[in-house]
Amino acid sequence: MSPEAYLERELPRFREELFEFLRIPSVSAREENRADTARAARWLHEQLLEIGLEAEVAPTAGHPVVVGQWMEAGPSAPTILVYGHYDVQPPEPMEEWTTPPFEPGVRDGRIYARGATDDKGQLFLHLKALECFLATDGRLPVNLVALFEGEEEVGSPNLLPFVEERRERLTADAVVISDSNMFAPGLPSLLFSLRGLAYFEITVQGPTGDLHSGSFGGAVENPANALARILASLHDEGGRIAIDGFYDDVVEWDQGTREALGALPFDEEEYRASLGVAALGGEKGYTPLERTWIRPSCDVNGIVGGYTGEGAKTVLPSRARAKVSFRLVPDQHPERVAELLRRHLRQATPPGVRSEMQVLHGGLPWRAELEGPFLEAARNALEVGFGRRPVLTGEGGTIPIVRDLEELLGAQVVLLGFGLPGSNMHAPNEWFPDAHVESGIRTLVHFYREAGRLGPSG
Ligand code: BES
Ligand code: MN
Ligand code: MN
Predict the structure, then answer these.
(1) Which domain holds residue 236?
(2) Mean pLDDT throughout 327-342?
(3) For residue 237, how far is the Cα from the chain centroid?
(4) Is residue 456, in this structure, part of any structural domain at all?
(5) d(CA 340, CA 135)
(6) Model pTM?
(7) Does the CB atom of residue 193 touch ligand 1 within 6 A?
């Protein structure tokens, strides 16, 4: 039987297994889900063993890493490392979900569940593509290393040391990752970039305690007012980031890439309307796709301070706090951005309050090598799976380990995602197209088969 025929026969069971995986609330950020997250790791471990790989659950200082290996294709075949993450974002706000986040179900051809697209659903496609080979041929066309982490959604704090330590055993010719979206329904894409991330918490401290805003307002600097001014100072009128030196390391993208972006079927008006906003924002002189893919950005992710309960309370709070993150592009570095922001805060903080900055996490931006046999194999595979040559797209999000994997292993990284725009990653009602379970696995079967015809270095 061919792997494809096996896929067709076993698809209903695959879907059941996917649902089982999605039912585990592997929320890495929440202490109360620690045992669930560990259960998701064990679930993956068992899958790998059943499929026929050697596998282990490797503990880290945080959530475990699940590693699998099948090296019997021999030294003349390439080694592919497949990376994915089995942790998910918290599901809140719960009341916005039509059906509960950890009770997967299909509506209108969509599998709804937290992690359906990001990334449990997509990681699962790889497992099943591998199973299709091992259950029929008894072998894989490539040597394979599986690396599944449980801390991507909290910044992968323990993965880099793990990879460094095991570098030898993780060595691969190519890294393949499915943790992103296609450009449009029916239009697959390969990623040429990911943005990096630099995430901070800023605390502004004023008087030692909360004060009556009538008795003291006007005479005492209010930390919430001051924080608002500080946050406002991060951008100029033209939507550029107004931190001295911030753009020093930003590499201008070549004209070819910008033209390719311009040629993508993108309707700005439709995009605006779909988001329910009256106008789009951002840096002058760039299109929305450029603003999210090849230009850096800065967003306040949350602000608290003072009274936020019901009704009104006249208080001058003693402190206010904001979470602020920057998306970075090549060759920016999170540590450099931290340094620049620290300097900016010193200038932007008014007398009468103190500001403090804490680094939460970071990740390097990544820009793809656009040529190479593994990328070609991915192109062909997507064409087989979806009937169309993929377009090249960028991505505004971050996968922190990508640059490190590329550099440490010296491997070509191929990002082929099967989610769809509007998949609600991180939001309520996350979904994955039901039909992409089959077309995704079919694509990956083809990818691994074609990769197997390449030599070790491609
Ligand atoms: N899968 C996403 C990254 C992504 C988002 C790729 C959208 C393609 C399209 C990943 O799981 C993610 O959410 N990353 C975080 C990283 C952070 C928590 C360190 C992000 O981008 O915010
Ligand atoms: Mn992800
Ligand atoms: Mn995510």
Answers:
(1) 196-263+281-363
(2) 98
(3) 30
(4) no
(5) 54
(6) 0.95
(7) no
